[in-house]
Amino acid sequence: MDRVRRWATTLLLALAPFLLLVYFLERIDVPGPTWFAAVILAVVDRIFGAIGSVPPLASWAIVGFLVGGFTYLSAWELREVNRPHLRVALLIAPWLAILSFPGAWSMLDIHVSRPAVIHRADETFQAGDVRPFQHIEFVWIPAGQFRMGSPDTEHDRHTDETEHMVTISHGFWFGRYEVTREQWYAVMKNPPPDYSEETDANMPMAGVTWDECQAFVTALNKGREGGFRMPTEAEWEYACRAGGMDAYSCGNDSACLAGHAWYAGNCEGKTHPVGQRAPNAWGLYDMHGNVWEWCRDFYGEYPQHRVIDPTGPQVGQCTILRGGSWLSPPVECRAARRFVFVPGYFLDRSILGFRLARTNNPARAQTPVPANPQQQTPGQIPRTGQAAPIPGRPGDVPVAP
Question: What global pTM score does this model have?
Answer without folding.
Answer: 0.73
